[in-house]
């Protein structure tokens, strides 16, 4: 028979797939290479597509389907499968050149399997004609289920390789097709398990079979017959759309049958006992499919959904919870009493009735009365299951904590209406627990009287007063007033006595000759670990390698080393390697010693600073956090209080310095002109913050697909932080109407290029104040869904947008707008001037600028609050000054100058910025300007100036900026022999500017001669990068406060001022990619300083050119 021949081929396809998987373990690095990785994926995909066809043919050959070509085809396919299984298996054997043969094996496989294309497509047509709903059985069997499961895999696998060709249109429709098909299968299996009459299942089961064959044919054709031209894509879209319409029509036909079937099993009391693993899988899969149907219901946003939003959210959370314990946390389910297990099955059944009724009622009218009344009853059942399940894992072993936890659960149980008959029993148990709690509290109170501490302190005072020579350590002082009181007890008797104070707060330590402790080096951590583990005997040599690895993982924090040593002391030495592999900040931070130490620090943080600290803990482990980003988030959340005569950013900076002073946040990089640029949080502190944030319901943290899939506590969630791949975030379908903050950190994606199509969430989350999707690729258009988020204060997105719509002005509360653009410029609308609360407007990415409409209306608003603007494209014409005057209080400006699109003859080339009295940092690029001179008027208050593609004629203007602290000159555009100094005219006569002003073809040497009267009195950092300068001379003390000089790719430089650093605190000369002659110049400066008695100058050569 055909079915036996098919089974024989299927039996051989399995080892073929196994051999393909084994290849990844032979040479993982080689297989990671794109051509091999993609090649093996395609081989596996095509094998699965053929397997699905065989499963389809097997199912209906049992019902009498026949095809004259089938036997011959199976014989040829069998030979091919055996041959290629052996070929791939041979690649895993020793002595075979893996890389040489893998490519050819992939090509041979694809050529052979492509030859079966016409035969399989023809037989699929025959199968489609045979599988007519009116002739099909109402029964579902394992053979059909295996076919449908294989098909569902195909629908997922086929999308990714072809997605890039049609911008995700296939993906959206294939995912919809997969969901519809999965629901049909899951419903029929669940209803069959519930014992629903076969007559009620005839339509759904027949529909499942007919749709499955069509979908199998479509997925096969979509892959093997793909031609990626526009016509072919359009035809494929039409075929998928038609099939989706067929499914929708089928749904409308048997929707009532589904509801009736579920209701009949509920009314008859025929609900099945739920205990077997197979039963859990069936019920869990149906709960999963119902979650998808409910998501669609929420998407329609009907009047019913709006009116019952809170209940809908609780239902959605509850359904996700049931799905989780059935599919991902079976140990919780297995620990339930049998009656509670059965209640889970009943709850899923009732959820099916309710959700299918909602789905059938898409117009938003009223629901049947019994369904509406059942809503509340279902939510109470789910709440009961949650409460009972939560008691299976109590929070720790602390007696008082456990009692409080159980009392809370009992209180919630007493509120459930359908447990009214048990309220007396619940009250009795509550009363007993309250009594036990009071006993534990009295014990704790007695324990904390510190009698031993008082006795010890009396002894200390006695020693000090008897005038002995003493050394006393006061560890962990929190308040300087406390020390001022204590020090009276320690007289200075001139005997060499000492008192050592330690504090976590710099403000305290600064009062008594402080010495700020640095973090341990790896070697110091290793020394401490050895002494802790083996204080009196040599450290075992065989444990040195693993011990050093563990010490390095402690992150330089002595406390971590001590805690880890305590853990290792309880582990057999042969288990240390396993501990090192599992070691993380989390399993160290959750020890009692660590938690107590950090809890003490946390308690001493003022209440207004605590949310700021917890926010810092939201960033991924080990990541440097840009200070400006963190401060803007604090401000957007409303954590920063208003202080009279201070900008809110300045107050936020004070908060940051306070946390740094408390040793809770670590400085990573300093800003070039003062302040902190980036910071980080030690892994131990970060884990404490994450734990505390979750305890206080401040933040919820979801990690990877598992965390997103199992999350079911959205009702009380206010802030959500997600660490996952973009595709997992899209599939998560989170429903959190109450959240105020959503932050996403891409994990394992690199730079995602796939378009996100899961923006419906923003239509629901209308209370968002912070939306940080800077690592989600949103495509070419600004998401219109974001425009309804009128409470937004902070918005960060990524994409390829070329313009921002006028409707962005709806976000009238927006303070920070960050756009990471992959390519191209971005045009802002005229309505941007209406967004008067904007403080920071930034574009970043590989290229691109922000451009504004040049026709600025006189009556448009002035953005008084705008503090940061980058990267702004400005045209050298009258519109430039009008635009700049629209943000008079700007503090940081990064812009690029360009010639006007329609140049006006004889137009003055003057760039006036001196009216920007608050401007501190200016970055200016002249790459797109012409060779003609430009007259600049910079504000005198500038502290930092970066010039790119500049002309040396600007030097005299720069020399007038007496408040400069940082000057960066990058990519000069002149290469001719003029000498620029303070006596030069500011403007160059037009007739003197030759064709080669920008350096093409000029042979003369560029000089920068600084005349004696020129001085940069506050300049601390000077960077010269990619310049054509040859002679840089000076005869006076031009840089009295210069601390750092950076010379980068200055290939022609032959001289630097000999007086450099003679009277200044020059600390470092950093040289990057410069010839040895430049290194010699720096060494001459160092020698000159040493002759004058200055020996602190360092020369750092970070990259040397030969």
Automatic annotation (TrEMBL):
Residues 453-536 form the NB-ARC domain. Belongs to the disease resistance NB-LRR family. One of its GO terms (cellular component) is cytoplasm. GO terms for biological process: plant-type hypersensitive response. Keywords: ATP-binding, Cytoplasm, Hypersensitive response, Leucine-rich repeat, Nucleotide-binding, Plant defense, Repeat. GO terms for molecular function: ADP binding; ATP binding. It comes from the Eukaryota. It is found in: Cytoplasm. Residues 118-385 form the Late blight resistance protein R1A-like N-terminal domain. The lineage of its organism: Eukaryota, Viridiplantae, Streptophyta, Embryophyta, Tracheophyta. Residues 619-688 form the Disease resistance protein winged helix domain. Its main location: cytoplasm. It comes from Coffea arabica. This is Late blight resistance protein R1-A-like. Confers resistance to late blight (Phytophthora infestans) races carrying the avirulence gene Avr1. Resistance proteins guard the plant against pathogens that contain an appropriate avirulence protein via an indirect interaction with this avirulence protein. That triggers a defense system including the hypersensitive response, which restricts the pathogen growth.
